[in-house]
Amino acid sequence: MSTPRPDKSTQSAENATGWPSFVRVTPGAGELPFPQLHYWVPDRMGVPEVDRERGAEYFAQALEFSARPGQALFIAEVLRGMFGLVGYTESGFIDALLRRSDRGIIPPRLTDEEAAAMEAEPAAVDKLREIETTVARAIEIRRFAPGVLYITTVGILSGSDGPHIGGAVTMLARMALNASRH
Fold first, then answer.
1. Is residue 15 domain-resident?
2. Among 58, 68, 89, 114, which one is least packed by beta carbons within 10 Å?
């Protein structure tokens, strides 16, 4: 039995707004007069192998888009958009990100100013730093135990700490961008 494949002729790497195809822009209305960006609204086929492949294609789009001026943290926003929604498509994206990031130096942690900009409360900054440290440790051992980084990444995206994952996903995004430059 053959696996259904998406029709590549109807897909474009960017949607009509210039964003990658998995980003949706909804017009503003009412209390939200400005357009709203939804960083992770992928098309899914419902076939695990196809959805994983599509996730990898989405990562390639995200990486290319991240190279644009002012878009260095785009991948971090996409990962934040995945929070609570980790399935086959997300798995393909994460696999591609980690394959790309298997070399190079460990990216820097957030500065105190960046962490404070993400979290207003000191307890929230502490939680952000805790999650960031967990990911940093998994990155440190990725060559010896690559599955740990995958499990850690899926764990933070599936967990209950969504508002505090900014440092961790920023570190993952920086890791992918650093690796793509070398």
1. no
2. 68
